[in-house]
Design brief:
This protein is mainly alpha-helical and 351 residues long. The chain has 12 helices and 2 strands, in the order ααααββαααααααα.
């Protein structure tokens, strides 16, 4: 438990005091946000706000994780390192996308195909690696199963598993990316899901089959380290949100949104709660679906369902204040997290 607390505290302090340094550095170099011309007109005032703040989140989380293990002398586990590798890899893809936008002075960065290719490569490497690195009990960070509250059904084979995980990682990272359209929205919603995974990691550790072999124990390789990773990224997001809350002094950019989406997917894979992530991150699912429905409707019928997609911009065009949308969407995210945790715990109820 000390490792979890240290990881969260260190990353929070680093992000809280490191973000203003990043704001000044990015401002001097002209790393400002470019705004879509077809977006809500209220966003035009945000032009020039420093972006790529996700670099602070990634660096603070990595340092927080490392320091926590050094201080408590707990070994860094394969699962934790692989999830952080996934976060960093997707953060690099997002950084390239952000840098191209700044260099070309356009709101469009990497082509969608190139971005998906980068996500697929990083995701495939992660998927292959989680099937390796057995511990003393012959447990690997994941196995070739689909999971909900734990592994379900028969093994699906290595290739289908890799394809499934790549789709899952691409979906999660892009969903968080689409949510990152209003000040603090994606950061706050991600914090809530990370809090859930901190709880899940601790619960799985307390009921680990290698500690107490019971009917409901969890065969998860490194549950405590998953809680440490979640806490480290959670602390970094908390510190960043201080400056990213409306009105934002800095944006996370694709650097942050892709990295955070990757962390959530990685935690779901290594805690064997892949499908549960769809409930815990229900807000991200709704926002991603709003884009899919909007594009599909327009291509099939020539008509739009929403005034604008993603969904948060629809409510902006209806006249809702930005802060109102952010807070209400945070509340929705919190309800989904509560529902997901309730489902996770329900199998422990008597009967």
């Amino acid at each position: 438990m000390k490792t979890i607390i240290v990881a969260g505290a260190v990353s929070l302090v680093l992000a809280l005091f490191g973000t203003p340094l990043a704001i000044r550095a990015f401002t001097r170099r002209g790393y400002g946000q470019l705004i879509r011309e077809d977006g809500p007109t209220a966003h035009l005032t945000k032009r020039g706000t420093p972006t790529m703040g996700g670099t602070v989140i990634v660096i603070a989380a990595l340092i927080g994780y490392w320091v926590s293990h050094v201080v408590t002398r707990q070994p860094m586990e394969a699962s934790g390192l692989l999830v952080l590798m996934l976060m960093t890899g997707l953060g690099i893809v997002g950084f390239i996308d952000d840098f191209i936008k700044i260099y070309r002075q356009t709101s469009l960065g990497l082509r969608s195909g190139a971005k998906l290719a980068g996500q697929a490569v990083v995701g495939a490497v992660f998927a292959m690696q989680v099937l390796d690195h057995p511990d003393g009990y012959d447990l690997t960070p994941a196995d070739a199963h689909i999971s909900f509250l734990r592994d379900i059904g028969p093994t699906i084979g290595v290739l289908p598993f890799v394809i499934w995980i790549v789709i899952m990682i691409a979906g999660s990272s892009n969903a968080v990316n689409l949510t990152d359209g209003l000040d603090g929205l994606a950061t706050g919603a991600t914090i809530l899901v990370l809090a859930a995974y901190t709880i899940i990691g601790v619960w799985q550790y307390r009921n680990d089959c290698t500690i107490a072999l019971t009917a409901q124990c969890y065969q998860v390789r490194d549950p405590l380290d998953m809680a440490v990773v979640a806490a480290a990224v959670l602390g970094a997001c908390f510190g960043f949100l201080w400056w990213n809350a409306p009105p934002a002094k800095i944006f996370m950019g694709d650097t942050g949104s892709l990295a955070l989406g990757g962390v959530l997917a990685g935690l779901a894979v290594c805690t064997k709660t892949q499908l549960l992530l769809g409930i815990l991150g229900g807000l991200f699912v709704i926002i991603a679906m709003s884009v899919i429905l909007q594009v599909g409707s327009y291509k099939l019928t020539g008509k739009r369902i929403f005034r604008m997609a993603p969904l948060q911009h629809h409510f902006e065009l209806l006249g809702w204040a930005e802060i109102t949308i952010v807070i209400r969407f945070w509340l929705i995210a919190g309800l989904f997290v509560a529902l997901g945790l309730g489902i996770f715990y329900v199998e422990w109820l008597p009967g």
